[in-house]
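Weekly puzzle thread! Below is a chain. First person to post its structure in token form gets bragging rights.
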Amino acid sequence: MSAFDQKPLNEQFHTLFVAPVQAFVSLGVDASEKLISAQLDAQKAYLEMGLTQTRQLIEVKDGAELKAYMEGQQGVAKNFVERVKSDADQVSSIQRDFLSQSQKLTEQNVQKAQEAAQNFSKSA
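Winning reply:
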């Protein structure tokens, strides 16, 4: 009576199921980490902008300083809009990268599954 060698079955299971799941989870974790980092950076920048403006407004002592402060708000708004656009571009880039990498993983896994199916049909 010969012993059943389970090693090839385990390797095939790992190749077809475990490794792809691990790759997709890893990709998802990496993308999440990048998104969270981008969000935290953006929040910090927006908070600093708001606090800076609040401090400047607190320092206003007369009408001339108030006028100067108000005139400077157009530049602040422009900087804010540019920052928001930059942050949105960064998030879009992260999403595009995730989509591209997940498509590559899917294609690789489909190819591996097809090869395994062909090998299985040849050996059967």
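Puzzle host: Confirmed. Bonus trivia for everyone else. The longest helix spans residues 63-123.
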